[in-house]
Amino acid sequence: MKLKIKITAICFGIFSLTATAQSDLKLWYDKPAAIWNEALPLGNGRLGAMVFGDPAVERLQLNEETIWAGSPNSNAHSKSIEALPKVRQLIFDGKFDEAQDLATRDIMSQTNDGMPYQTFGSVYISFAGHQKYTDYYRDLDISNATAKVKYKVNGVEFTREILTAFSDQVIVVKLSASQPGQITCNVFMNSPIDKTVASTEGNQIILSGLGTNFEGVKGKVKFQGRLTAKNKGGEINASNGILSINKADEVTLYISIATNFKNYQDISGDEIAKSKDYLAKAEAKDFERIKKAHVDFYQKFFNRVSLNLGSNDLVKQPTNERIRDFSKQFDPQLAALYFQFGRYLLISSSQPGGQPANLQGIWNDMVTPPWDSKYTTNINAEMNYWPAQVTNLQEMHEPFVQMAKELSITGAETAKMMYNASGWVLHHNTDIWRVTAPVDSAASGMWPTGGAWVCQDLWERYLYTGDKKYLAEIYPIMKGAADFFLDFMVIDPNTKYLVVVPSSSPENTHAGGTGKATIASGTTMDNQLIFDLFTHVIEASKLVSPDAAYVKKVSDALAKMPPMKIGKHSQLQEWQEDWDNPKDNHRHVSHLYGLYPSNQISAIKTPELFEAAKQSLIYRTDESTGWSMGWKVNLWARLLDGNHAYKLIQDQLHLVTADQRKGGGTYPNMLDAHQPFQIDGNFGCTAGFAEMLMQSQEDAIHLLPALPNVWKDGSIKGLVARGGFVIDMTWKNNKVSELKIYSKIGGNCRLKVENTLKGNSLKKAKGKNRNPLFYDVEVKKPIISDEAKLGKVKLPNYTIYDVNMKAGQTYTFTGN
């Protein structure tokens, strides 16, 4: 399939490959934000701020990661036990609509569908007379995680610097001017949450509140925000919840927020004491000291990876204009900025000891946001962490691992109560209270396979680190998920295979019954997920908890499961029946999980499945919701088609403005547009960039596997491959020219390139890679329709090397 990448040939001659300057890592604008999707995100994992930058009235919309509606609860119930066999029989009888209706009535949650993540509110800073301004500029500098606003009024330049301090756990704002005595403003806080009270304590203004009641669950999250100021010159006065500053030379605002949340089952914390403590410790430091600690902390993670795709003068244009024009012009710095922006967002929304990034990361201005800004576990929550290992942000993954541990506890209660099964279960959604019952209607919620996908993510971390202590820690979680499916899965009398039923191919209707149901038996995605879970549990058991009888039990179940199927339209079937419609362009591409993030589908090992997956992706088309396009970047990269992957990046970097009501893309502030905002598309695309430049899911580190023509020269530093190998690579004319590899843990490093390499210790590879962290799998031979017409996989000639590396050493190679 030929694709026309939307750039003109002249673009290839107007850029030069230079070291990426820090100025390239700024999102900047020449107008204030008029709406939330134009404001700029700051975060320290726990606190989030959206900076609007209006000269007359600055708005900082604020979040604290544990402000959620409701309180500790479970939405599991026992009514489902009686309904389950009836639903199964209706599915086996082909009565899908009746099965779905019964599941909605008797299996879905009978109480609540999970609680929404909620905003704290906003801080407003009002400057009289600043409506008329000139020389406006605002930016977000992701090289140091700070935001800045500058403008002039009556010849005086005013500057605001804002950061959410990682080390000091406060939001800090520095207000300054080019002339003394010019800072005069009023500062106050408010919230859309009803149960809030503004007050004053000395020179502090305070906003205290309580998370809302929701779907019958009483709101019990108490929160408090405190704000104070330190001035140079002028006067400060606090009264009636307003902080007034008069004729100061410079002012620093300190903002703390805290809640009574301790963990998903304990809200006995003291939000007042915590908010006071955060503020008192920060207030003892000046802005520059807090900023230095903040930048040092942040850069410890961010500076691990750099990407250089070239440069040109387009960097001089405002970011929103560059997003708007990305498909029409070659803007390599915007592409690199977009990649790094995803890493910035993950550092800013997911820190060790805190909550994982939710559907909107930590940024939300609503009391009941879309989909409640929960954790959607049929793709979105996992997608948030796709960049964590490969882009060298391993620590940011820890909140997700902790959530998995907690879900295995609450999910065990749900598995027993709802299905009389051992182990633990997770359906398609959870929240801060770690609810695990199916929610919403059966059309989306009757999907019990979330635990398997969570465990795939946990296993991947092991492959990147080789950490057997970690593997021993997560093995009980993986085994618990497998135990559930050993109990829950049944033989489908129509196919004679062991399958998950009832379930669905997430959110997509099939042709069975009236064509309006999603509920089904043995969907392809479920089979792929359980294949991975069982396979990984078997391997993990051998490594950290040998149990021959258990391994045999899991292996026997695995042997009874169905193979993947290729249908009459030459597609990878989404269901056991050949129901796929070539005109179906549904946003979910669930049956392609086996291609990415899994490694079950391979150009070399399973060429028929590879071609069928490609045909399925072509049928689905390119443009879709933001997160769907992010997934497709990775899928086309795994299909070794860099030009198509780049075309998806162009589609994703389509500017979504306030008057565009449908379709995905990117908002002016570079956040992902589903629409509405969902952060997973940002993370998916960042992972996709990495997959285009390096892959390690099979038996080798494949360098430049899906390089688009427009990136013929470039460099990347700091990507991490499975096996704990850190890759620094430069390429010219589409071939690796310089390569440095740092081995964290030692072992055989197998390299796969299209050209040849020179360097000490290089040997032509022979046989199977002996490094066990390059985890290869064997899937069953697919069942192929007689009507299918599959193409032949065409691959370049690769050169494959082995290098036996020692832990802690760096190896250097050059390309020929």
Count of helical stretches: 18
> How many β-strands, per DSSP?
37
Cα gyration radius (Å): 27 Å
Distance between the termini: 30 Å
Given as residue ranges, the uncertain stretches (5+ residues, pLDDT < 50) are: 1-22
Helix fraction bin: 25-40%
Q: Strand order, biggest sheet?
A: 1-6-7-8-9-16-13-12-11
Main beta sheet: strand number and arrangement?
Answer: 9 strands, antiparallel
pLDDT averaged residue by residue = 95
Shape: globular
Strand content: 15-25%
Structural class: alpha+beta
Oligomer: single chain
Domain Alpha fucosidase A-like C-terminal: 695-763
Domain Glycosyl hydrolase family 95 catalytic: 287-693
Domain Glycosyl hydrolase family 95 N-terminal: 27-264
Protein name: Glycoside hydrolase family 95 protein
Layout of strands and helices, then pairs:
Elements: E1 26-29, E2 40-43, E3 47-51, E4 57-64, H1 79-92, H2 96-106, E5 121-126, E6 134-141, E7 146-153, E8 156-164, E9 171-177, E10 183-190, E11 196-201, E12 204-210, E13 222-232, E14 235-239, E15 242-248, E16 250-259, H3 271-283, H4 287-302, E17 306-308, H5 319-324, H6 332-349, E18 375-376, H7 380-383, H8 386-390, H9 398-419, E19 429-430, H10 442-445, H11 450-465, H12 468-488, E20 490-491, E21 498-499, E22 503-504, E23 519-520, H13 524-544, H14 548-559, E24 565-566, H15 607-620, H16 626-638, H17 642-652, E25 665-666, E26 672-673, H18 680-693, E27 694-695, E28 701-703, E29 714-721, E30 725-732, E31 735-743, E32 747-753, E33 757-758, E34 763-764, E35 783-784, E36 799-805, E37 810-815
Parallel strand pairs: 24-35, 28-32
Antiparallel strand pairs: 1-6, 2-3, 3-4, 4-5, 5-10, 6-7, 7-8, 8-9, 9-16, 10-15, 11-12, 12-13, 13-16, 14-15, 17-29, 18-19, 20-21, 22-23, 25-26, 27-28, 29-30, 30-31, 31-37, 32-36, 33-37, 34-36
Helix pairs in contact: 1-2, 6-18, 9-11, 9-12, 11-12, 11-13, 12-13, 13-14, 16-17, 16-18, 17-18
